[in-house]
DNA sequence: CGCCAGGGCCTCA
DNA sequence: TGAGGCCATGGC
């Protein structure tokens, strides 16, 4: 077994299954105890959440999602109709609210022209290319959407992932390189990629923070410290 | 009070 | 292609 796989096993047995994506307003999580999307509304909530959480803690995003939900704005058509200014006020708690309001509007446009049913039929490569062409959607957001909204096997790299694996001593640095490291060393399995990324977020929040606290870190044995 | 959070775009070498 | 500025709130 390779190191990438070993680290996954250790994290999984320590933290347990994470069941991402953390749907919060679509009512799916409470009914089914799983964040897996079942319909287009769930998918849209994930897409919106992925944009809102750019460089922002999930806690701040939840409030914004609640506000959107109250105003029936987990809807492509309703996002189209509302003014960007009003939208910005509703998502204020997520930070960068003017930018993010614009990004949500642009994404709504994109989804009107590219219905999810059609996007779902595309190959991963093609879907990724189309998402990356949308202004405001970079590699991490695109991959989060592909993995968590469309349940296709691609590995999401975020700031936590970069930090954790740098500390572990891996030399891969840029996004694509790091992504390949995971995809080449794991089964190309949607559930594995889903869980692994979620587990890394958990590790990053609780142990491998900017200022690390390694005492109780479950993978301290694989790490040089630092 | 200062630091940081599940990025991405733009500009300028 | 890489570094640096910019966008901003809320938790700790």
Structural topology:
Elements: H1 3-15, H2 28-32, H3 40-52, H4 58-70, H5 76-81, H6 84-90, H7 97-113, H8 116-121, H9 124-132, H10 139-149, H11 159-167, H12 175-185, H13 190-206
Helix pairs in contact: 1-13, 3-4, 3-10, 6-7, 9-10, 11-13
The chain binds a DNA duplex (13 and 12 nucleotides) through residues 50-51, 53-61, 63, 92-100, 103, 135-141, 144, 156, 158-161, 174, 197-198, 200-201, 204-205, 209-211.
Descriptive overview:
The chain is mostly helical and 226 residues long. It folds into 2 domains: 3-15 and 155-222, no CATH class; 37-149, Hypothetical protein, domain 2 (Endonuclease III, domain 1), CATH 1.10.340.30. It has 13 helices and no strands. It has helices at residues 3-15, 28-32, 40-52, 58-70, 76-81, 84-90, 97-113, 116-121, 124-132, 139-149, 159-167, 175-185, 190-206. The chain is globular and about 55 Å long. It starts with a helix and ends in a 20-residue tail after the last helix. It binds a DNA duplex (13 and 12 nucleotides) through residues 50-51, 53-61, 63, 92-100, 103, 135-141, 144, 156, 158-161, 174, 197-198, 200-201, 204-205, 209-211.
Strand count: 0
What structural class is derived from the secondary structure elements? mainly alpha
CATH topology of the largest domain: Endonuclease III, domain 1
N- and C-termini, Cα separation: 26 Å
Supply Rg: 18 Å
Helical content stands at 55-70%
Order of helices and strands: HHHHHHHHHHHHH
**Main pleated sheet:** none
Task: Extract low-pLDDT stretches.
Answer: none
Write down the domain tally.
Answer: 2
**Which CATH first-tier class of the largest domain would you pick?**
Mainly Alpha
Outline type: globular
Strand content: under 5%
Number of helices: 13
CATH architecture of the largest domain: Orthogonal Bundle
Looking at this structure, what is the CATH superfamily of the largest domain?
Hypothetical protein, domain 2
Mean pLDDT: 95
């Amino acid at each position: 077994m390779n190191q990438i796989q070993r680290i996954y096993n250790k994290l999984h047995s320590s933290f347990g299954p994470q069941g991402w994506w953390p749907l919060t307003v679509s009512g799916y999580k409470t009914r089914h105890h799983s964040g897996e999307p079942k319909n287009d509304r769930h998918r849209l909530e994930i897409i919106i959440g992925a944009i809102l959480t750019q460089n922002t803690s999930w806690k701040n995003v939840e409030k914004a999602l609640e506000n959107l939900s109250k105003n029936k704005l987990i809807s492509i058509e309703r996002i189209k109709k509302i003014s960007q200014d009003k939208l910005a006020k509703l998502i204020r708690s997520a930070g960068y609210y003017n930018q993010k309001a614009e990004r949500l509007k642009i994404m709504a446009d994109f989804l009107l022209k590219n219905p999810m049913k059609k996007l779902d039929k595309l190959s991963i490569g093609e879907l990724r290319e189309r998402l990356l062409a949308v202004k405001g959607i970079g590699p991490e957001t695109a991959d989060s959407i592909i993995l968590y909204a469309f349940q296709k096997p691609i590995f999401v790299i975020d700031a936590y992932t970069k930090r954790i694996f740098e500390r572990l001593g891996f030399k891969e640095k840029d996004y694509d390189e790091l992504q390949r490291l995971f995809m080449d060393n794991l089964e190309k399995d949607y559930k594995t990629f889903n869980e692994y990324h979620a587990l890394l977020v958990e590790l990053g929040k609780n142990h491998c923070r900017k200022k690390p606290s390694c005492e109780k870190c479950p993978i301290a044995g694989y790490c040089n410290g630092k």
